[in-house]
Structure formats: structure tokens, C-alpha cells
Amino acid sequence: MSVAGRSWWSIGSLAAAVLATTLAVPALVSDPDLDLDASVTTPSAPAAVPSSPSPSPSPSAEDGFGRSPTPSPSPSPSTPPSPSSAAPSSPAPPTFRTIRIAATDPANERFRVEATECPTCASGSRIQYLGQGQALTVHVRGVPVAGRRQLTIYYTCGGGPRPLDVIVNNGDKVSLSLAGKDSWIDPATVTIPIDLPVGDTEIRFFHATHSSVDLDQFVID
């Protein structure tokens, strides 16, 4: 077949196809049993999901380059000091406590006097032969606080009043006349005020010319 013949054959085939389509479309439209709306399914739109509003940035100062400065961390609460870091309390002031010293205590200095037993005495013994230049020096050690104190002397005396001189450290002499209970085994007492400094003190008991009393013990308070 020549080229011209093939062209006319193609045109004729195209025209026949167009005619067949034209005849078919009215038939579809005129068919009452055909529901075009049911044949075409329109997809339903998805339900809208409410979106949470995005947080609006809090206003902040910007630096010179348009950048917001990094917020500084909030300060942590202060921690209360532990008991061990508390300031130490002031020490209690020193106090004076009653001092008792036996006349026969080995720490005392004896100058030509002697110790003898005395079951009825407060310390169970006493110093005898005091006076006429013979003496007893008592050492009071470690006094914590200075002040005016009371010195009570326990002594025995028989045969009438006898003299006794007392000197505290290098202070003034205190002269006493002691009668007692007229007994060498039944102690009596006499109390005199004395001034004691802090530390150690010496108290001297003596008489230069006469025989004196026997000494039992001393109480300072």
C-alpha cells in the first residue's frame, strides 16, 4: 500500500472511533440505574487535631548582636551551718572550791615540831610543840581565783589561853589568843579572813616566845 493510501486508512479509523464514543456517552447518561455519585468516592477530610499553642518566648534583653543572653542559674538556698562550725562558747570562769589541809600533811614544812596521833581530831593526827620559835608552814597550791577567803583553824589547847601568830605570804601578822576546850584531844576552831592570790600561797603558824596550841587541820572557803 502506498503512503497516501495508509494516511487515508488512518484518518478513517480515527473517525470511526470518534463516532463510536459519541454514541456510547449518551447511553451512559440516559441510563437511570447508573448512580454516578455513588461510583465516585470523595475522600473525607481528616478531623482537625487541635494543636497546643507554642509558648511565646519571654521577653529578654538582647545583646548588641541580636542574641538573647543565657539566663544565669537561680541561686541555691543557703545551707545552715552545722553544729561543729558554730562559734565556740566562752569557757566558764574559774571558781574557788573549799580547800582542806591536814596540819600533819607531808607537804607542809615543819620547823622543830612533831606529829602525833589524835583519834578525836578531824584529820586523825596533830602537830605539837608549836611556839617558842618553832613553826609550821602550810602550802596552799593551785588557787584558781584570787579573793578574800575564810581560814578556819582546828586546834587543841589545854591549861589556859595560848598565843598563835599567823602570816599569809609576806603579809601582816595576825596575833590570836586561843583558850580552846582545855583539852589536847578535843579540837576547837577559830576563823580569820585572809587574802589569797591566784596560784600558790604559804601560811605560817608560829609564836616567837611562848608555847602555842597544837594544830589539827585547816579549811579555806
Automatic annotation (TrEMBL):
<keyword id="KW-0732">Signal</keyword>
<feature type="compositionally biased region" description="Low complexity">
    <location>
        <begin position="38"/>
        <end position="51"/>
    </location>
</feature>
<feature type="region of interest" description="Disordered">
    <location>
        <begin position="33"/>
        <end position="96"/>
    </location>
</feature>
<feature type="compositionally biased region" description="Pro residues">
    <location>
        <begin position="70"/>
        <end position="83"/>
    </location>
</feature>
<dbReference type="InterPro" id="IPR008979">
    <property type="entry name" value="Galactose-bd-like_sf"/>
</dbReference>
<feature type="signal peptide">
    <location>
        <begin position="1"/>
        <end position="27"/>
    </location>
</feature>
<protein>
    <recommendedName>
        <fullName>CBM6 domain-containing protein</fullName>
    </recommendedName>
</protein>
